[in-house]
Hints:
The protein is α+β, with helices and mostly antiparallel strands. It has one domain (74-118, 140-409): Aminoglycoside 3'-phosphotransferase, Chain: A, domain 2 (Alpha-Beta Complex). 53% of the residues lie in helices and 14% in strands. It has helices spanning 15-27, 74-79, 82-106, 153-176, 178-187, 191-197, 202-217, 222-228, 231-246, 289-300, 303-325, 332-335, 338-347, 349-363, 367-377, 393-409; strands at residues 6-8, 34-39, 50-58, 61-69, 120-124, 131-135, 142-143, 253-255, 264-269, 272-278, 285-287. The strands form three sheets. Strands 1-2-3-4-6-5 form a six-stranded mixed beta sheet, with helices on both faces. Strands 7-9-10 form a three-stranded antiparallel beta sheet. Helix 7 (202-217) packs antiparallel against helix 8 (222-228). It is globular, with a radius of gyration of 21 Å. This is CHK kinase-like domain-containing protein. Pfam families: EcKL (PF02958).
Amino acid sequence: MAQYNFEGEIQNINERQLEFINSVIEKQGFKDSKVTFNAVGSAGDNYMANVKRIFVEGENGNLSIIVKIAPASEHLRENFNSELLFSNECFMYAKVLPKFLQLQKQAGVPEEDQIKFPKCYGSLDEAPNEIILLEDVKAKGYTMQDRFIPLTDYVVKSVLKSLAVWHSLSYVLKQKEPETFNYFKDNLIDLLSIIAKKKDNPAIDFIAHIEKMAIGVLTGYPEYQNIIRDKVTGALEKGAKMQKSEDGNRFSVIQHGDAWTNNIMFRFQGDTLMEAMLIDYQLSRNASPVSDLMYFLFNCTHHNARVEYFYEWLDYYHSELDNSLSNYGIKANYAYPRDQLDADMKRYGKLTLGNTVVTTSMMGLKPEEASKVKEQMDSADLSNVSAVNNMDNATIIDYQKKLYWSLREL
């Protein structure tokens, strides 16, 4: 450690990772600079990585970097396939995102309409030392919304526009460079399919326990208890089957995979929202666009807003898909017809239901509750890990309401 001028929260960062961080910083022109490490966010913001913000002080300027560090725990790595998750994200930064941006630049898309993502300063795809160093986009004025507050209509539309542009570039790639798209598709890992196939997987026990607890939370609503029963655990197998069907589907895209509030950055000018930026690509894969849309809308918006705006949001998404594709002379009604989107919404309903039971149980935890769950997840036996058991009464009531309305809608 003495060879580095590092200070702050460097616990849980091993020597190989510190060495890599130092080499990346030096490549950015900061040799022998003071580097301060600070934790980012709070418990519940990120379950699958240790995230730090490092501030580099140099003679000719400063640099702020976000560092994503793979968990060191063998239990966490094994239970949640950390190696594959980090490999996915490294591949997205190294191959997919630069290609998407290249397509836009070649088509003359104005800079303000180009896909936005953090610059990757370097990544180490070397188990068990995986690490990714990213541009700190807060320095450019991007902020994160409060994960406990549902997104409003105009914010939702900003995210839907980003997803539409993101999805459109897969259709462009399929038409212009199909071999490149297939290369991307074949190299991105579908985590849920791997979990479903793996025998004696603690992650399956974890999901089964969430289902059991969700049924308990819905005491007083027996009709909804019956709807949930076997839907959560069954979502893994169903998702794997649907994923297989998407492999040769002409409408599939490279999806983001985890579009919820904490994985979206927003840039405002005063009170005006300028743009949304999707971050965190660990779960990116080849899938239906609807998978991204359903995940985002049911995890990040309120029931009342969905009642009022849901179909308007779908229309808006499809119009923005068409706008982006028009840069390449492609019509959305050819690439992904509106009636196909509607059909896919119905096809993904049951899968979304199962997934929503799990995601809402984790995303709604207060920091002190999430901290307990994260500690429990570091175990060879996940059968008794429960988000619900760690919730206070207010959180349980909120979880019950979210489940109730999601079940009514789906």
